[in-house]
Amino acid sequence: MQDDFFEEEPIEADSSSIAEYDITISPRDLTPASIVEMIDNGIMELPIFQRNYVWEIGKASKLIESLILGLPVPELFFYSEGDENSTYKIIDGQQRLLSIYFFLKGRFPKNSKSRVTICKELNSGKDLTTLMADNNLFKDFLLVLNKEDDEVKSRYHNKKFVLLDKDTQIKFKLRRYLRTVVVRQNKPENNSSSMFEIFNRLNTGGAALTPQEVRASVYYCYFYKMIARLNVLDGWRNILNKPSIDLHSNDLELILRSIALLADKDNYFPKMTLFLNNFSEKSKKFDKNTVDYLEKLFVSFIDSCSHLGEKAFFRNNRFSKSLFESVFYAVCVENYANRSTVVGKINKDSFEKLKIDKDFIESLQSGALSNDGITTRRNRAIALITLD
pLDDT confidence of 205, banded at 50, 70, 90? Predict the structure, then answer.
């Protein structure tokens, strides 16, 4: 999704005070071999393709070559919620970790289309090792390092791991180290807010992480697996009018935001980022029945929109988050209270009336993310939207 895909929203003033944190920072040095072992054994929690793997093979190859040559690479940041026996969540460094993992496994995602399929398969419960054997999804990881006009050619070009000489294999696997910083928040307890302060202020990997990309690691849980499944549904992609998933998880955040504003409506407060962080923290404790119900509810809402037409939720040629959230709330609020799902289709005339409603439009133009603005839009949607 390009930066102007979504309708512009006002920048929220940050009126929150900065908390004081008690955190423990532990440096570690990991070899590529230990990284692969930790991923395979679940010690390193890597929500693969929920935080999307976006590197192309040329960029991944340069990282691998740097490690082979003994050149320094940017450090990794992990987050640990508990003691020394806890698993590690990857906050910054997923692209580097997966590049190393894929190289040692000898496989690399075939193309952008295959990455979408890989994401769907992983979110449906398929095993990554099995998927890597599929030649429709993965290809051999042959290092891409040389260009025709390069004066100096790399001797590792077009090599995969098993084609390296034994000494180079051992050196790469066991004698090259990646500096890792493990962060653990001691106080305040029972939340992960320090991660957002750290990664709003740090840019270690060359590209700033979005809040949703950080959430995908910090709050990875059954609920997050569920919204990742929703994000690849054809019906949802049709509503967005975007067949491929967003590289920076803006589409995933919209699902989270819509469900949060329905399920936790009484606790909404600006700023939206903090509200979504708090709801994500709560989601880690949702039981399976609750999560499964929310999935069914969202799917039933998607079905209720199926006849509205292409770009139904667009305003001024941009997708309107506020319009989508308001209609989602109006259609689902009674169902949510009764733990039922949506039956019927949204009446198209009532939908079009909402889009041109004076009070609804005014609430978008000032204080769009304020309590008053959100309440006004909800009330107008409830008053106007009907089902057939």
Answer: very low
pLDDT at 323 over 90: yes
Alpha-carbon distance of 233 to 301, in angstroms, equals: 13
Single pTM value for the model: 0.78
| pLDDT tens digits, one per residue of 123-158 | 777 888 999 999 999 999 999 999 888 888 899 999
3-state helix, strand, coil in the chain (%, to 5): 50, 10, 40
Note the pLDDT tens digit of each residue in 35-47.
999 999 888 877 6
Please determine, for residue 31, whether its predicted confidence score (pLDDT) is greater than 70: yes
- In whole angstroms, what is the distance from residue 198 CA to residue 185 CA? 11
Q: DSSP for 97-149?
A: HHHHHHHHHTEEE--HHHHHHHHHHHHTT--HHHHHT-TTTEEE-------TT
Q: How do residues 246-289 score in pLDDT, each as one tens digit?
A: 877 899 999 999 999 999 999 998 889 889 999 999 999 999 99
Angle value at C-alpha 326, between 246 and 258, nearest 5 degrees: 45
Residues 225, 123: contact at Cβ < 8 Å? yes
Q: Is 387 helix (H, G, I), strand (E, B) or coil?
A: strand
* CB neighbour list of residue 365: distance below 8 Å, 6 or more residues apart: none
Side-by-side strand order, sheet with 44-45: 22-30, 178-187, 76-79, 88-92, 44-45
Is residue 229 classed as helix, strand or coil in its secondary structure? helix
What pLDDT is attached to residue 152?
A: 87
Alpha-carbon torsion angle 349, 351, 357, 360, nearest 10: 170
The C-alpha angle 249, 63, 142, rounded to 5 degrees, equals 95
Whether the pLDDT of residue 50 is over 60: the answer is no
Q: Is 184 helix (H, G, I), strand (E, B) or coil?
A: strand
Which distant-in-sequence residues (6+ apart) come within 8 Å of 364 by Cβ? 7, 315, 320, 322, 373, 377
How many C-beta atoms surround the C-beta of residue 367 within 10 A?
15
Q: Which of 211, 204, 249, 242 is nearest to 318 (CA)?
A: 242
Contacts of residue 257, defined as CB under 8 A and 6 or more positions apart, other chains included, come to: 272, 276, 321, 325
